Amino acid sequence: MTPLTSTGFVLLLAALLWSCAPQRELAPPPPRAAAEQEVEQDLLDLSRQKWQWMADKDVGALRTLFHPDARFVHMSGTWGTARELEIIRSGSIHYKRADVHDAVVETFGDAAVVWNRITLLADVRGMEVTNPFTVTEVYQNEGGAWTLLALTFSSIRDGHELEH
C-alpha cells in the first residue's frame, strides 16, 4: 500500500467506526416539577385576584396582600403601601379593569416576580383612561403566604411581548 492509500484507509475506517457508534442525543430539559408549576399558578391566580380587589376597592384584602413597606411605581410617582391603599380607597385612581393579555412568573426560592402585560381601564382624578402596561410584581413568601413587595407600571408600545 502506498502512504496515501493507507491514510485513506485509516480515514475510511475512522468514519465507519464513528458512524456506527451510538449517537448521544441531547437530553431534553427536565420537566418542571409539579410543585413548581403549582406555585406559579398560585401566583398567577393571586395576581389576577389582586386586580379584582383593586377594582372593587377592597383595601382590607389588599392590606393583607401588600407588605407594609411595599413600593408602588406609577406614571406619576413612587410611594408606599399606606398611600397606595388611600389612593385606592378614595378612588383618586380607580382601577376599573385590568385585561391581562400575558403573564410570566419566575420564582427564586421564597421570592417571585410576576410580569403582566395588561390593558388598564382606570379613572384617574375623574378622567377615564386606558393604557397598555407591563406590570412587574415582586412577591415574597412569608410563613406560607405570598406578600407583595413592589408593583411597577411600565408604559409600553404596541407589539410589546413578554419573553417566556
Work out the helicity level. 25-40%
Structural class: alpha+beta
The low-confidence parts are 9-14
Evaluate the radius of gyration: 26 Å
Number of helices: 4
Q: Into which percentage range does the β-strand content fall? A: 35-45%
> What is the H-and-E element order?
HHHEEHEEEE
Please state the overall shape, judged from the principal axes of the Cα atoms: globular
Sheet with most strands: strand arrangement: 2-1-6-5-4-3
| Straight-line distance between termini | 60 Å
Compact description:
35% of the residues lie in helices and 43% in strands.
Structure write-up:
The radius of gyration is 26 Å and the shape is globular. It has helices at 3-20, 34-55, 59-65, 81-90; strands at residues 66-74, 77-80, 93-108, 111-124, 127-142, 145-155. A 6-stranded mixed sheet has the order 2-1-6-5-4-3. It has 4 helices and 6 strands. The chain is an alpha+beta fold and 164 residues long.
Topology record:
Blueprint: H1 3-20, H2 34-55, H3 59-65, E1 66-74, E2 77-80, H4 81-90, E3 93-108, E4 111-124, E5 127-142, E6 145-155
Parallel strand pairs: 1-6
Antiparallel strand pairs: 1-2, 3-4, 4-5, 5-6
Short key terms for the protein model shown above:
4 helices, alpha+beta, 6-stranded mixed beta sheet, 164 residues, 35% helix
